[in-house]
Amino acid sequence: VQLVESGGGLVHPGRSLRLSCAASGFNFQDSAMHWVRQVPGKGPEWVSGISWKSENIGYADSVKGRFTISRDDAKNSLYLQMNSLRGEDTALYYCARADGRSHTAPPDYWGQGSLVTVSS
Amino acid sequence: EIVLTQSPGTLSLSPGQRVTLSCRASQSVTNNNLAWYQQKPGQAPRLLIYRASFRATGVPDRFSGSGSGTDFTLTISGLEPDDFAVYYCHLYGTSPLLFGPGTKVNIK
Fold first, then answer.
1. What is the pLDDT of residue B7?
2. 3-class DSSP string for B26-42
3. Contacts of B29 in chain A (CB under 8 A)
4. Other CB atoms closer than 10 Å to residue A117's CB: what's the count?
5. Closest CA to A91 of A41, A37, A48, A12
6. What is the mean pLDDT of residues A101-116?
7. Residues of A with CB below 8 A from B98's CB?
8. CB–CB of A105/A15 below 8 Å?
């Protein structure tokens, strides 16, 4: 299982950023997926999850209405569109495979993360 | 909304010692949907235990999980140098998924 995140960087407050995650080594379309973020020195925070076939999606209250998760099974890719970014969104963003098809199944494999810094 | 509490916050132990980490939920956990992760500096979290007591693939049998309802425990039967890390409990099965604040296990 390999998960490689990309798209992070430095962005001004209020702007947008799109993260991507390229998956390989497993049947991507048969797995739910997650985005989890972590501020250095703090615990992980679940951001969003998407079930197989995109039937069910969930978001943390802290990002609801601003972030959108999506997947492209043909490209074995997961995405996170982040709008109206705030300083408190600064974190390392991990893509993670779920242990099952449900968007609430626990993450079992994680990428190495993509750093998002929101600052003026 | 459920809150996860982990204790202690930090432990200082010697290799070979047995360690018990605690995770408490503010409400009963459905179907024992409680997992444990290990995280070392500069690395992503690694799944150790799911459904409270089932070891993930490749996890050594010195790691064991137990508990039900609101109280859960991760036990390491004999600490090895590679085990010094931060351990997080994780509530899943319902949205939003939650992580506990973590317990750091230091070398004494």
1. 95
2. CCCCHHHCEEEEEECCC
3. none
4. 15
5. A37
6. 98
7. 46
8. no
Q: 3-class SS at B92?
A: coil
Tell which of A99, A112, A114, A115 to mutate to test the B interface (max B CBs under 10 Å). Answer: A99
Q: A72-88 in b/e burial notation, b at 16+ Cβ within 10 A?
A: ebeebbbbbebeebeee
Q: Report pLDDT for A103.
A: 97
Q: B108: pLDDT confidence band, cut at 50, 70 and 90?
A: confident
pLDDT at B1 over 90: no
- Chain A residues whose beta carbon lies within 8 Å of the beta carbon of residue B50: 99, 106, 108
Instruction: Please judge whether A110 and B44 are an interchain contact, meaning their C-beta atoms are less than 8 angstroms apart.
Output: yes
Using CA atoms, how far apart are residues A81 and A18, in angstroms rounded to an integer? 4
The residue-averaged pLDDT of B63-88 equals 97
The torsion region of residue A41 among left (phi > 0), alpha (psi -120 to 50) and beta comes to: left
Closest CA to B40 of B93, B80, B98, B75: B80
pLDDT tens digit sequence for A23-40: 999 999 999 999 999 999
